[in-house]
Design a protein that fits this description.
Organism: Marivirga lumbricoides
Number of domains: 1
Pfam families: DUF4168 (PF13767)
Radius of gyration: 18 Å
Order of helices and strands: HHHHH
Helix content: over 70%
Protein name: DUF4168 domain-containing protein
Largest sheet: none
Number of helices: 5
């Protein structure tokens, strides 16, 4: 939800990062994950406070993105718009927090995005990062 958007060609995933870069990535993730989890919880609370379920919110989102032709009442649309605006405001704050963490750790947003994509899509890189996490917790 509050992640920095990923970009790039999936065929050219860079995975040859130094141990120092991976250590920074792990440190950033340890700070970022709780922030993102809290943002996701807040988003669900906002959605529910606007009389929608998460599933219905996602259905209406699909309609808004022309990926569904489900029926949406004017009331649901108004609730959706209110919730979406509140969530976007909160996400801007989360984005700022993440960028500050990256700055503090000396990791560029681009490198973070690339490492995130590598972690999500390359099993070997994921194993290498997970080994760093285990090493750090021991």
């Amino acid at each position: 939800m509050a992640q920095i958007p990923t970009t790039g060609d999936p065929q050219t995933i860079k995975t040859d990062y130094s141990d120092e870069a991976i250590t920074k990535y792990v440190e950033v993730m340890e700070e970022v994950l709780p922030i993102q989890q809290k943002a996701e919880k807040n988003a669900i609370e906002i959605i529910e406070a606007n009389d929608l379920t998460l599933d219905r919110f996602n259905q209406i989102l699909a309609v808004q993105q022309n990926q569904s032709d489900a029926e949406v009442s004017p009331e649901e649309l108004a609730s959706f718009n209110t919730a979406a605006q509140e969530i976007m405001k909160k996400n801007a704050s989360v984005q700022e927090q993440v960028l500050q963490i990256l700055k503090n750790e000396g990791l560029s947003p681009e490198k973070y995005r690339n490492m995130l994509v590598a972690y999500e899509r390359d099993e070997e890189f994921q194993k290498k990062v997970d080994a760093f996490v285990l090493e750090e917790t021991n």
